[in-house]
Amino acid sequence: MKKKSQSNSILASNPKARFDYQITKKTIAGVQLLGCEVKALRLKSASLKGSYAKIIGDEIFLINAQINPYKFAVAKDYDPKRSRKLLLKKKEISKLKELSNAKNWTIVPLSILLRGNLIKVELGVGKGKKEFEKREIVKRRDIKRRLASDYKIGKIKI
What we know:
By secondary structure, the chain is of the alpha+beta class. It has a single domain (8-129), classed as Small Protein B, Chain: A (Beta Barrel). The protein is 32% helix and 35% strand. It has 4 helices and 9 strands. It has helices at 15-20, 35-42, 90-102, 131-153; strands at 8-13, 21-31, 46-47, 52-56, 59-63, 66-67, 84-87, 106-115, 118-128. The longest helix has 23 residues, at 131-153. The radius of gyration is 19 Å and the shape is globular. The chain starts with 7 loop residues before the first strand and ends in a 5-residue tail after the last helix.
């Protein structure tokens, strides 16, 4: 029997999370979704802007992630920013809870992935960056961009 290759395609990403937080640990979790949400995600109709994960009791939830309604579904009273349960083992949840409480870190969704026929969320655990760290990153990026354009134009020769 041949093994199916696990191709990961990104359905939604949160680039602001990597800018605002210094991510140290990553994990992948399943998501409890409605049928119309799965179809909407396959059309890449989602946003992770401003979303986060919160541990309540022994369960972990994805809060404030927006999955727009599937345009052909007839779902009454659908809330696109509802809380969705994340599917992790109890051991992994307790590890995340320990990290977020002890070191005062935040659990942030980095992307929503399509793995085979399953939809997963990539979570990152990290500490928020200070304002001066963000400015330094922007400054470095700007210098790098300027050098690349100068090299392309021909002002800089190696």
